[in-house]
Amino acid sequence: MPPEPENGAPGIPDFEGVEITDSSHLVGVPDEFQRLWTPHRMVYIQNGTQPHEEQCPFCIAPSMSDEDALIVARGTHAYVLLNLFPYNSGHLLVCPYRHVSLYDQATPEETDEIATLTQTAMRVVRRVSKSDGFNIGMNQGRIAGAGIADHLHQHIVPRWATDANFFPIIAKTKALPQLLGEVRASIAAAWPLAHNE
């Protein structure tokens, strides 16, 4: 039988049935909670109101450093950045610099570069993360599910044969194995290599 705690309070039973009498015994003791570490979301805690509430984030991003804006590549008419709310690790967005909302309002030069950047992004992500496939698409207008409907952007979502699990269905949670800054650095470092293919 375990010793009585010094203050006379009953101990806390752990999962082995052993009485724990002080907090030093709690280190490493499992509990019923699962933890998803999301340090990239500290930006919302530290910065308060987000820019997209007053201004378009896709217009602001090009004026920032690549690291701060999560930009992986810049073209002449469009650029590529990581989605701040990714469906999967390596979820990219291709945006024209010009503030235009619909695909049929983009110029031929913008659509050409969006297409070229999309192809390059696929090659780079395939090389960096060994993805098995991609979901590529645009949500045109709020009614179609566009989170930022006023600025055209194309999603490139890498997929793997084993990327599905119960989290999104049961817990409305996505498990992301790599931090956004690390993903951005690896894709940006590999980007120039894709132009030689």
Question: Would you write up a description of this structure?
Answer:
The protein is α+β, with helices and mostly antiparallel strands. It has a single domain, classed as HIT-like (HIT family, subunit A). It has six helices and seven strands. It has a five-stranded antiparallel β-sheet with strand order 3-4-5-7-6. A hairpin with a 5-residue loop joins β1 and β2 (19-20). α4 (108-129) packs across α6 (180-194). The chain is globular and about 55 Å long. Residues 7-15 have low confidence and may be disordered.
Do you know the CATH architecture?
A: 2-Layer Sandwich
Q: Helicity level, as a percent range? A: 25-40%
Q: What is the general shape?
A: globular
Instruction: Provide the gyration radius in Å.
Output: 23 Å
Beta-strand residue percentage: 5-15%
Count the DSSP helices: 6
Terminal-residue CA separation: 70 Å
CATH class: Alpha Beta
* Overall pLDDT: 78
Largest sheet: 5 strands, antiparallel
Which residues form runs of ≥5 with pLDDT under 50?
7-15
CATH superfamily: HIT-like
What would you call the structural class? alpha+beta
**Count of extended strands:** 7
